[in-house]
Amino acid sequence: MISLTERLSRIVGDAFEAEGLDRALGAVRVSDRPDLAPFQCNGALAAAKAAKKNPRQLADAIKARLDGDAAFEEVTLAGPGFLNLTPTVAFVEELASELKADEQQGCFRVEKAEKVVLDYGGPNVAKPLHVGHLRSAIIGEALKRIMRRAGDDALGDIHLGDWGLQMGQLIAELRRRMPDLPYFDENKTDGFPEESPVTVEELAEIYPAASAACKADPERMAEAQAATAELQAGRPGYRALWQHFVNVSREALERDYGALGVSFELWRGEASVHDLIEPMVAELKERGLLEESDGAQVVFVAREDDKKGIPPLLVVKSNGSVGYGSTDLATLVQRKQDGFERAIYVVDKRQSEHFVQVFRAAVKMGLFEEDQLEHAAFGTMNGKDGKPFKTREGGVLKLSDLIAMVTEKAEERLRENSGDGADDPSRADNARMVGIAALKFADLSNPRTTDYVFDIDRFVAFEGKTGPYLLYAAVRMRSVLRKAGVPFDEAMTGTFCLKEQAEVDLATSLLGYGDAHRSAYEKRMPHILCEHAFQTAQAFSKFYANCRIADEQDPDIRRSRLALVAVTLRQIEDILGQLGIQIPQEM
């Protein structure tokens, strides 16, 4: 179904067209002054400028055409020609009934679905997830779900850091520690053990030790570089060992991401495009796109209209090796081969220049059009000192420790809220869901491109714009239906008859879902959906406080209000599902 503002825009657009003006000028939006009216149209000002007429007189002519329309309770003028619009209750009831019957619940649906890959992982093999991985995971998962809800075939790719020098460092270090392992026998080509010789916990200790040793000792660095070259050349023992590293790391990553409610359909890494790099470089040379610069091979991507200089994309280093530029470009070759029509990279905004380089090189190769490649950049999560969030000791906080921290704080709040200090078997699960909701909503409710401050006490509050507030609202809606003894499906059959302003306000808020969803989708901004959910939860709270529901004596009004509860619950559940937030049974 089309949204309430779209429906009103059609009616007002007809009035503009009847005056010989562009109907697009009749666009209606939510009012900046809700104390005057819930909706407004500013088109008369733009129309007057184009027609060289007085905007107030023009707006008055539009008003005269709208005054007799059954959709409007009141149309007033303000200022130089603003139209303030108040729909009739009957009109709101009609659209609310359509919303209730709509299988898509009023959410936005794309006209032409695309096959989209979202890159929102980027962890390295052998390293535990830390707080720096949080935003890409939360935002990427939400965007994937929002796009799927709109009809796109959207897939998430973790894009593992599983190739390059770090792998060589691990192999060289393990060879020093465990030289008798069969993987280091140059003459052995198969029959390697199926069990990994190291755990992910051991890898987490080995890698920093190996990295530090290589930085301190040129001989150790040379060993690691040689091991890297042999791995990439296909030495069987090293490939088998590398596969163990990837496998044990994946188990840990699936566990940690799973605790956050994040998943990936594709578990590819830099290694998956290794065999694509050589033919890609050959194609770049053949097409005259690869040029020499200080002994390296680069693709020049700067343009005359650039406000700042954009360096060329480094494809082949002067020593013949390749780096992130070549693997990222080869990844786009792979994604094109896989039939993806759009690629979205949910990566820290500090990487913006890199993606400009890679995207422009891909466009030059003819892989994608420029508007098919997106960098959905995001800001940082900071401590109260304004710097990227760290532990009290100044170290990088593991993601698992962060989740434990918010879960513990959520359990404290749940215990306070219940007023019962006794242990409750279900409280642990509820605390986990509330803690994750607090963490996710705190992130997603901020505009993606901005930084925000980590404030655990504020995040887990049951009041204000927080995840727990939304969960509590949803739990209350379920409780209302349960206490009324009316199953959800039965509640959905009620006919709307809105008697109180709080009911009308809630229904009006629900009818804004399509606009919010569309805007969140098109702008890649989940916070817009968060804001709609919060405003709707607030409207429900006022409705709950001002209207009898389960104990309403008039059977028609009771059925109407229970239907309003059911539609609100369905919409809040739909939105929270897109944000990757689970709702507990009780709080």
Automatic annotation (TrEMBL):
It comes from Parvularcula lutaonensis. It catalyses: tRNA(Arg) + L-arginine + ATP = L-arginyl-tRNA(Arg) + AMP + diphosphate. Belongs to the class-I aminoacyl-tRNA synthetase family. NCBIfam families: argS. It is an enzyme of class 6 (ligase). Monomer. A motif ('HIGH' region) lies at residues 123-133. This is Arginine--tRNA ligase. The lineage of its organism: Bacteria, Pseudomonadati, Pseudomonadota, Alphaproteobacteria, Parvularculales. Its main location: cytoplasm. It is found in: Cytoplasm. Keywords: Aminoacyl-tRNA synthetase, ATP-binding, Cytoplasm, Ligase, Nucleotide-binding, Protein biosynthesis. It comes from the Bacteria. Residues 2-87 form the Arginyl tRNA synthetase N-terminal domain. Transmembrane segments: none annotated. Its EC number is 6.1.1.19.
